[in-house]
Design a protein that fits this description.
This protein is about 25% helix and about 25% strand. The chain contains six helices and ten strands, in the order βββαβαααβααβββββ. The protein has helices spanning about 50-60, 75-85, 85-90, 105-115, 135-145, 155-160, and strands spanning about 10-20, 20-30, 35-45, 70-75, 120-125, 185-190, 200-205, 205-210, 215-220, 225.
């Protein structure tokens, strides 16, 4: 039985917002066996990173059969997010960063990971505004989106603005404050005795510790100045 050949497709993308955040747009080129299709869309209020992500998502979602897709993007945020495994790690940690804050653009990262699973995808970073033919064309398409008369509402970004406090760092101050990762009450712990490093000007007398997920939080009130005549903390 003859096996079906998996098509090999090139996907070129670019996106931006003016200002950041502001009206945005993205441009996409799909290339298969010398045939190219171009797309662009504009958004009322969004960010550079969201448009870079949306460009890749849009392009991949346009491909209706499983394919080997080579993506070219000038966004380190997008390329490194996939190639370096950041997005997969965020997903495994329930979209919570190390400091307990929510991951920005979670809605788009989830969508990107889902569509990647449908294809064989390779990501490549290209330098923007450096004469790369397709990248320059995608930039022009993105500007068409930015200047389009009829723009789309970026519901994900609007939701972020409505809940911005959940994405900002929440400082813990006292024992019993809830862990940012798992909402378990924290307890106070004293660090082990250690030598003061050269040029160190302060240390923490205690820290807050989560007995459930083992997270540690430095507390401003626990900060102490290092004495000049001591070489240990206590």
């Amino acid at each position: 039985m003859k096996t079906l050949e998996i098509p090999e497709i090139e996907l070129f993308t670019d996106g931006g917002a003016e200002p950041n955040s502001g009206k945005g747009g993205f441009g996409v080129i799909l290339s298969y066996k010398g045939r190219k299709k171009e797309f662009f869309e504009g958004y009322e209020l969004t960010t550079n990173n969201r448009m870079e992500l949306m460009a890749v998502i849009f392009g991949l979602e346009k491909i209706k059969v499983k394919a080997k897709v080579t993506v070219y993007s000038d966004s380190k945020y997008v390329v490194d997010g996939i190639v370096k495994g950041w997005a997969e790690n965020w997903e495994q940690n329930n979209w919570i960063r190390k400091k307990g804050n929510l991951v920005l653009n979670k809605d788009l990262w989830e969508r990107l990971l889902n569509v990647i699973d449908k294809h064989e995808v390779e990501f490549n970073w290209v330098k923007g505004h450096a004469g790369h033919l397709e990248n320059e064309r995608c930039d022009a398409l993105a500007n068409k989106g930015i200047n389009a008369a009829n723009k789309i509402k970026d519901e994900g970004y609007l939701d972020y603005l409505d809940n911005i406090e959940d994405y900002q760092e929440k400082k813990l101050e006292k024992e019993g404050d809830l862990c940012r990762k798992c909402n378990t009450p924290t307890i106070k712990k004293t660090p082990k005795k250690r030598k003061v490093k050269k040029n160190q000007i302060y240390y923490y007398e205690y820290y807050l510790y989560c007995p459930n997920c083992k997270a540690m939080y430095m507390v401003e009130d626990a900060k102490r100045e290092v004495s000049d005549n001591n070489n240990t903390l206590f």
